Amino acid sequence: MLSSEAVTPPPFIHATTKHNASDPYTYQDGFGNHFSSEALKGALPVGQNTPQVCPYGLYAEQLSGTAFTVGRSGNQRSWLYRIRPSVMHRPFEPYESNAGIVGTFDARTTETTPTQIRWLPFPIATGNDFVDGLRTVGGAGDTALKSGLAVHVFTADRSMEQRAFCCSDGDLLIVPQQGRLDVTTEFGKLMVAPNEIVVIQRGIRFSVALPDGPSRGYMLEVYDGHFELPDLGPIGANGLANPRDFQTPLASYENGEPAEWSIINKYQGELFIAQQDHSPFDVVAWHGNYAPYKYDLARFSVIGSVSFDHVDPSVFTVLTCKSPHPGTAVADFVVFPPRFEVQMHTFRPPYFHRNCMSEFMGLIRGEYEAKKGGFLPGGASLHSMMTPHGPDASTVANATTRELLPGRVADGTQAFMFESMFQLRLTKWAVEHKQRDHDYYKAWQNIPVTFNPDQI
Ligand SMILES: O=C(O)Cc1cc(O)ccc1O
Ligand SMILES: [Fe+2]
């Protein structure tokens, strides 16, 4: 029997929906909705997108997230009503201040190895904002052909000031690990705490302030498609990440006073900068279904085995970016949430595995259930395609000898995985990083041989 003492309270759900339009961190709930939002009453044109003159003298601008002719169920676009059209900027020039962003993954710029790789926590460098503190760990494919993905980490101790970033190469899924990110976007503001994620789609301008000081996190970039909720199959209509828990900002704008702003644009894997004399966050109203959103991982409704065996981690998929191959993702964002474990006569930890997908993992907090040390918050691991991996020796020793009482697993922790059908190549920065743990292979060397042919 499960005694009440043995039960740790369920995870605390901290983000509450607010409907107070005077609070800039106010959200609209839902995934993939056609939202409408206006910061000034009457700013959204009624019944048409492009009136001859828009209310309040605003300019209409469409942001297309899919080709015009994509079918209705997949078509994504928004209409923005702004003080100035975003074309009012001076020409883009190469941006030289961050050479750590990589967008081509060939043998000249990157390296590869099938060895299991782990990094101890990436130290937070000083003097960088979110853009200058971005480093590409690895990736695959080609932005120009809209095929592939990149994995980045960021460390920053300065807010972006009068600087906006935009990624022309793909959609960004950002996972803060330390310190909240105060994200101003063209669509409004989002406050994103560790254990929450934010998705900012291709082309959307945003700026990151750091209300808690130094910050660190991970970023997945997909060069094609958009994130969607995974199908639920026999699970039914509810569970995993529920659509109503995704939150999109309400319109909020900065006034049109002249001020010098920089737009830093990642285009074809390279950074460019353009100057303009006004804030890019001058959108007074918008409508559409192409807009950033955040999600609190504590709201994930966990499915698992209640009888025996370890279920594949696909049941922990929060978001997926599908490829043309059914069931095979360009990238899945998977979490390992706190939950009950009740399986009988079962080796309960993540099983030993060789996968036809690449597995990049990070840790937001606590200790991952398969690694008792070495895999630390703010660090990362990569188990490449067909590379063997699994629980470390001490986890195996415990899992094979423990009494299988019902219990809690992973309380207070949150690990995640970017799982991809692509083979990742690593940047020199990642391969040569001083935090790379060259002893990682030792995690598995002391697994005892328990084979006994006379046992039965
Ligand atoms: O720890 C890992 O590498 C990820 C992982 C998790 C799991 O629950 C099952 C298999 C697996 O590879
Ligand atoms: Fe695996």
Number of domains: 2
Biggest sheet overview: 10 strands, antiparallel
Bound small-molecule species = 2-(3,6-dihydroxyphenyl)acetic acid, fe (ii) ion
In CATH's first tier, which class of the largest domain applies? Mainly Beta
- Tally of separate helices: 2
SS class: mainly beta
| Mean pLDDT across residues | 95
Uncertain runs are: 1-20
* CATH-defined topology of the largest domain: Jelly Rolls
Radius of gyration over C-alpha positions, nearest whole angstrom: 23 Å
Q: Proportion of β residues? A: 25-35%
CATH architecture of the largest domain: Sandwich
**Shape, per Cα inertia axes:** globular
What is the H level of CATH, i.e. the homologous superfamily of the largest domain? Jelly Rolls
Task: Sum this structure up briefly.
By secondary structure, the chain is mainly beta. The chain contains two helices and 29 strands.
Protein model, in words:
By secondary structure, the chain is mainly beta. It folds into two domains: 27-106 and 127-297, Jelly Rolls, CATH 2.60.120.10; 298-442, Jelly Rolls (Sandwich), CATH 2.60.120. Helices cover 3% and strands 34% of the residues. It has helices spanning 393-401, 428-431; strands spanning 27-29, 35-38, 59-64, 77-82, 93-94, 110-111, 117-119, 134-142, 147-156, 163-167, 171-178, 181-185, 188-192, 196-200, 206-209, 215-222, 246-249, 261-267, 270-276, 283-288, 293-296, 317-322, 329-336, 339-341, 358-365, 380-383, 407-409, 414-420, 425-427. The strands form six sheets. Strands 1-17-21-14-11-16-9-8-29-6 form a ten-stranded antiparallel sheet. A six-stranded antiparallel sheet has the order 7-26-25-28-23-22, with no helix packed on it. The longest helix has 9 residues, at 393-401. The protein is globular, with a radius of gyration of 23 Å. The two termini are 31 Å apart. Bound molecules: 2-(3,6-dihydroxyphenyl)acetic acid and fe (ii) ion (FE2).
